Automatic annotation (TrEMBL):
<keyword id="KW-0012">Acyltransferase</keyword>
<protein>
    <submittedName>
        <fullName>Lysophospholipid acyltransferase family protein</fullName>
    </submittedName>
</protein>
<dbReference type="Pfam" id="PF01553">
    <property type="entry name" value="Acyltransferase"/>
</dbReference>
<dbReference type="InterPro" id="IPR002123">
    <property type="entry name" value="Plipid/glycerol_acylTrfase"/>
</dbReference>
<feature type="domain" description="Phospholipid/glycerol acyltransferase">
    <location>
        <begin position="36"/>
        <end position="155"/>
    </location>
</feature>
<dbReference type="GO" id="GO:0016746">
    <property type="term" value="F:acyltransferase activity"/>
</dbReference>
<keyword id="KW-0808">Transferase</keyword>
Length: 238
């Protein structure tokens, strides 16, 4: 992770700024040291590059263990890339993916790091903002760290799904909002109504930052419908 972050800062950063001239704001809202939870919309693969770009600290993300278990050259490249961009694999040996992700996230925050999370659970199928899963609220209440809303801007146009490279002529960016205070809910991390309320407040703040249209449905369900697949009702923590 550290070597890729250094590479990004020294080599890729000047290129990304020169070619795409990203518009970034609110970086002072991210603490210079200590743990924080960065909660973002997710529009494109390009988010992995332009989200962390203006910060002076690396961001870590929780990812599927499958990203790290592939075989052959493809598996090796997958492990190298996801490790490089700060993805930490979830240990699912206990059988509960939601709990495993929660424990992994708490461990990262206990180490004093920045943890990035996409509460929509997947990249949006279009340029709209979708319903968040309540795992982000549980993580916020259990960790009791600052919660920073983040809005990726124009990355869907920059690199829509299926496109292998960034488009030219699109100016992406990222906006970091003011920290959200959920201390009034501490100790209520098992109350489903509280978790939904917190999650909806986070998503509303991201919507205000991003200017996106909000859709009160899970992105995974919409993507399945668009692909003509059978829709499985998604749970809040799936």
């Amino acid at each position: 992770m550290l070597w890729f972050w250094i590479l990004l800062r020294i080599v890729l950063s000047p290129i990304l700024y020169l070619v795409w001239r990203p518009r970034n704001s609110g970086m002072r809202n991210v603490p210079k040291r200590g743990p924080a939870l960065l909660v973002s919309n997710h529009l494109s693969f390009a988010d992995h590059f332009f989200g962390p770009l203006p910060l002076l600290r690396p961001i870590f993300f929780i990812g599927k263990g499958e990203y790290f278990t592939g075989k052959g050259l493809k598996g090796l490249l997958s492990r190298a890339f996801f490790t490089a961009v700060g993805v930490v694999p979830v240990d699912r040996s206990g059988g509960d993916a939601a709990e495993a992700a929660l424990e992994t996230g708490l461990r990262i925050l206990r180490e004093g790091k920045l943890l990035g999370i996409y509460p929509e659970g997947t990249r949006a199928p279009d340029n709209r903002l979708y319903r968040g899963k309540t795992g982000v609220a549980r993580l916020a209440l259990k960790s009791r760290v600052p919660v920073i809303p983040v809005a990726m801007i124009n990355t869907f146009e920059l690199m829509p799904s299926g496109r292998p490279v960034f488009r030219l002529g699109v100016r992406p960016g990222v906006r970091f909002g003011a920290p959200l205070d959920f201390s009034r809910y501490y100790g209520q991390e098992d109350d489903r109504e509280v978790l939904r309320k917190i999650t909806d407040e986070i998503m509303q703040t991201i919507r205000e930052l991003s200017g996106q249209e909000y859709v009160d449905r899970y992105a995974a369900e919409v993507k399945a419908e668009m692909a003509g697949r059978e829709v499985r009702p998604a749970g809040d923590d799936d």
